[in-house]
Design brief:
By secondary structure, the chain is an alpha+beta fold. The chain is built from six helices and six strands.
């Protein structure tokens, strides 16, 4: 019995990626995945937020976040990331995933990638002045790669713009999107 060899580059299964890409070309609806996150807060809970979710594999997972330290005082110092840090981590990992897959398709082997996403968070609009400066922005992304040869860095600079344009997490913060809010009672 012959075993199929999986073509992997940068931990990306190139055969699976090619199949998914062809499905998306044939039927664009196949490339769409409803993605959901939930945050549950209950008075006095530790962590402040728990986010029960189901992964694409079907496994259950709980994300956790605390309120920002400035909001909790010294009695309940946060021990988990605050909500904005979760959002930035999501953007960083989404961008990195896109960059890794484009690099893999280009034949570029990477050993390590570090993506840092940062923004200045300003609480004055929430706390003091409803017309104050925006609550966050601008967003800065720093990419560090290994190997750090001049050829690798040049290629990553080229594909970083592709990743910036294609990564859903980056797109969500770079382009105004309508946000709808529905309020109901807890059932």
């Amino acid at each position: 019995m012959a075993h199929a060899t999986v073509r992997m580059r940068n931990d990306i299964d190139l055969d699976a990626l090619t199949i998914f890409e062809e499905q998306a070309r044939t039927d664009p609806k196949q490339a769409s995945v409803l993605t959901r996150a939930r945050a549950v807060w209950t008075r006095g809970s530790t962590p402040a937020f728990a986010g029960p979710t189901r992964l694409s594999s079907g496994a259950k997972y709980v994300m956790e976040a605390d309120l920002p330290g400035a909001f909790t005082g010294t009695e309940r110092a946060p021990s988990r990331p605050a909500p904005v840090q979760h959002a930035l981590f999501g953007v960083a990992t989404c961008y990195a995933t896109c960059l890794l897959s484009v690099a893999a398709q280009c034949g570029l082997e990477l050993e390590e990638i570090r993506v840092t996403v940062e923004t200045e968070v300003n609480f004055s609009r929430l706390l003091a002045d409803p017309n104050g400066p925006p609550p966050a922005g601008p967003v800065r992304v720093r990419v560090e790669v290994m190997p750090d040869t001049s050829e690798t860095l040049a290629t990553v600079r080229e594909i970083s713009e592709v990743a910036k344009a294609r990564a859903p997490g980056v797109y969500m913060i770079a382009h105004p999107m309508p946000v709808t809010v529905e309020v109901t009672g807890v059932r």
